[in-house]
Structures are given as C-alpha cells and as structure tokens.
Amino acid sequence: MFKVITNKDGQTQEIQTSLSAHELMDNPLLNKGTAFSKEERDAFDLHGKLPIQVESLSSQLMRVYRQFQEKNDNIQKNIFLNTLHDSNTTLFYKFCSQHIDEVLPIVYTPTVGDAVEQYSSEFRRPAGIYLAYDEQKQMDMILGNIAKKQQIDFIIVTDGEAVLGIGDWGIGGMDISIGKLMVYIICAGINPANVLPVQLDVGTNNQKLLDDPMYLGARHPRITGKKYDQFIEKFVMSVKKHFPNVYLHWEDFGRDHARAILETYRDQLCTFNDDMQGTGIVATANVISAIRATQTKFTDHKVVMFGAGTAGCGIMDQILDAFIASGMTRKQALDRFYIIDRFGLVVDDMPDLPDFQKPYAKSRKELKNWNINNQENISLLEVVQNAKATILIGCSTVKGAFNKPIVTTMAQNIERPIIMPLSNPNSHCEATPEDLINWTNAKAIIAAGSPFEPVVYQGKTYQISQGNNAFIFPGLGLGAIAVKATKMSDGMIRVASETLASFSPLHQSVNNPVLPPIHDATIVSKAVAIAVAKQAIKEGLSSIKAKEADVEKLVNNAQWIPDYYPLKKQ
C-alpha cells in the first residue's frame, strides 16, 4: 500500500505509494485533505477533487479547533474527533498533541463511557477487527491476512464485559480499545500504522443490548467457562503465530477473567492488563510520592481498599510490592493491608474467596480486639476506625461511599491522609474532591479516577490530580516496543512506578497535586519508556541486541511524529 523512506537515523523522509486519487484521500494514514501540495496533486491526479487553495497543517489545525469548540457537548465533540480520526490521522493526532488537556477527557474517560453506550446507534464505519465466538473458525485467517499486509507492533483487545465503571456493553467495547489506542499515540507516539484494536465478541449479558434492534454484536448471553477459555487461547495462539513480537494489551475484561488471562499468558508474550496493572502503577506512584512528601515512613501507614475486585486487588498487589521494597517482609506488609467487598471486610473464613483476595483476608484472631457491630459484615467505617487507616482507595463504583464520618476519621488517624476515589466516571466516584478537602481542612492528599475542577477552600485553590493511567501505559508500551520486549516483568512495572513518582509536584510542596498536569504526559511517557526499556535489557528480556546506552535512540526511533511527509508515486 505504501512504503516509508527513512534516513540513516530512522527519520521519515518521504512516503511512496501506488494508491489512486480516491484511494489516497480515503486512506486516513496518508490523507492530507486540503494540504496536498501542488506536486502531489499533479502526481496523484487530485486536481478538481479538492478546493484550489493549498493549506498548511497549521491552517487546518486552526479550522479544526474552531469546529471543535462549536460542538455543543462532549459526546458531539467525541463524534467530531472520531470522524476526523477516521479521515485524517495526521491532522487528528497533531491537533490532539497540541490540546491534550481538552482532548483526553473527550477521546477517553469520562466521555468515552457515553460513546460506548451509544456505539451501535452512533455507528459510522468499522474500525479494527471484530472476532466473534460464532465465527472463530475464521479467526486465524483474519489475523493472517492482516499480517500479510501490515506490520503490527501493538494490539489492544477487549471483550467489553467490564467497561470502565459502567459494566457489560458488549461490542461497544471497541470504542474503549480505540480510545485507549488514541491515548497511546497522543502521549507516547506509538505508530498508528502498526496498531490493531480488537473486539472479542462473545455475546453480552446486558439485556438492554439484547433487546435493542440496533445492537450490532452477537445476540446471545456471554460464552463462559471452558468454551470462553478455549476461545481466548485460540486468539492468543493466533496472535503469537502471526505477530510474534507484538505487545498485547488486555482492556476491560471481567473480574472472573482478567487476572486468569494475565497469569496464564504473561510469560508467553509481552502482555499487559491496564485495569489490573496500570491503575496499580499510578496508585503506587501516588503513594510513594505522598509518603515521601509528608516525610512519613511506610511503617506509619495502613492501607484500605474499598472494592476488592480484580482492579482493586491488582492495585493492592502493586502497593504491596512497594511496601516490601521499603524493607518490610511480605507478612509485615500484608498486616497493614485491608480489603472490603460488598460483604464487608474480607475475612479468611468467608466461603468461595477468589485466589486474588486470599493474601489480604484477615483472620478472626486479628480482629478479636476490634469494636464491631456485626461480625458477618464489617463496615468500611469500622475498618477505618479499628485499623487506624491512613490510606484509603476506592474501586467500588459506589457513589458517595467515602462519607464524612469515614473521611474525618481518616484525618484523625494521621495528619495527611491519602485518599484516592478511583472509580469512574464521576457519577460513580466514592467522594468528590470538594468534600474531601472540606472534611479534612484541606489536609487530604487526593487523586481521583476522573477529572474534577479545582477546589477553592478558604481562599486557596487546590488542583485535583486525576489518577490517570495515561501517565503510565503509553510509556510502558513504547518502551516494550522499542526493544521488542518478550515479557512485561514486575521489574519493568516497578521502574515505571518509580519514574512517575519522580515527577510528582508534591516534591515541591505537600499542598501541590499528586501528579503532574496532564499536558506533561508526553514528557512522562518518554521517561517511563526509557526506564522500562533499560530494565528489559537489564533483565535479558529484549529480543534485539542493545545496550542500555542505546535506549534513548531506540525509543526516539520507535516514536511516530504527526506531520505531513512528501508523497511520491510508487
């Protein structure tokens, strides 16, 4: 389709293609719209198919921004940007890179949640590939055909079962894969020509979708059990066969599947689950930054997780590793961790505990001196009071769960409580930053799961950090791709967390936000990529011969810059 010509340093010089005029304008990777030069219009017979004026990329960007601002609401802005993405990749990503603060909440959380719900009704054109359980015999052929035509370095896959905080939206999960890829490209410069969003369609248990005549996915309940596991295995084996060096990102899989899939395949190829690992890396970086900024020790802290599902326990796993790295034994660290699900504090005599909850389950002996009303359902407030919790994290999607008595108790337990209501979108958040600041006299160190407006308290304005995985997963992916990593190791994850922590504004003042502003995500992503790539080389997980001294150049060469390059007839 096209060939990229580079110089000795790997920088793009020109692009050669044999596409015809309409094929060229219909190809979003090559389309320039009104910016095709006179020479390109001559070479590709574009005269008469475009207005006579030849515009610069800068002129196009001005028009796009005006059109963007004219949209009435965020969902209309999301549709506008996705339409631009589908027609002109370069213009879209150049625009996004210049307006990260405004764009990320539109192409990803929180607006993407609304887009997912409206996926079938707002469907415009297919994007990525849809692999249905009912057509699994064709899976290998589909992936094989793509491998023949396109270099794929990166795959993001979802089955749409646990989308953000809004649940099972079936084939609408494709918008999550696409939105996540956009963030990878905006923040880290992953090459859009080498990525593949995938929707695994195994049905849906959302009756609203099954009853909707416009729903585009498979109209049956979700496939489960052995059949589901075999389908996932078939997908992974086909990916390994056709894309042996790929980076595989799992997105928004359900509680019963996410951890099992990651543990099954993490040693077979370079794979990553953002819900289990990415959120945990950011939360861990926040904890490390806050502990350092408040000049406390890890031993001064007790951690409570409200929402003990796959995501919540994945976060706890990452924070636990940081506590152990501080010098504690595993048992000493676990003694400071508490998880709460819908049945209250998780205790080891509860029936049918998932394996991922068992390390954190408390014994009745540990609780014998606690003041508790109901032994069968120990509440969040009782845990915060009795455990003397200092760090409180929410992954429950229960709006308002962190109420005033709980938060004021946290403020009594320690001068600077660390509180992270991470559920998104905002309508599912455990507490608002405004309430947290008011209830703790602005002492709480806060990170939220979605963007919130600054809070004014006693004449001072407090910026609220979004515990945004966009600070982490783009750099992880770029670092892994740059050295063709064979695995995403715990060591690579650890250095990513430490790198993000080093950027915290808390180091300048404890009243600053925990995380840097989102427009710094490109800087952070590159630093994370370099650290991750170096760690991969150090652990012998790079499939190319490289030294740590080569890493920055490798990362630079792996990045794509959104710009128009000269097009030549092939």
UniProtKB/TrEMBL annotation:
Q: Which residues form the Malic enzyme N-terminal domain?
A: 85-266
Give binding positions for (S)-malate: 424, 468
Q: Which residues form the Malic enzyme NAD-binding domain?
A: 276-537
InterPro entries, alphabetically? Answer: Aminoacid_DH-like_N_sf, Malic_N_dom, Malic_N_dom_sf, Malic_NAD-bd, Malic_OxRdtase, NAD(P)-bd_dom_sf
Query: Gene Ontology terms, cellular component aspect?
Result: cytosol
State the similarity comment: Belongs to the malic enzymes family.
Listed name of the protein: NAD-dependent malic enzyme
The lineage is: Bacteria, Pseudomonadati, Pseudomonadota, Gammaproteobacteria, Thiotrichales
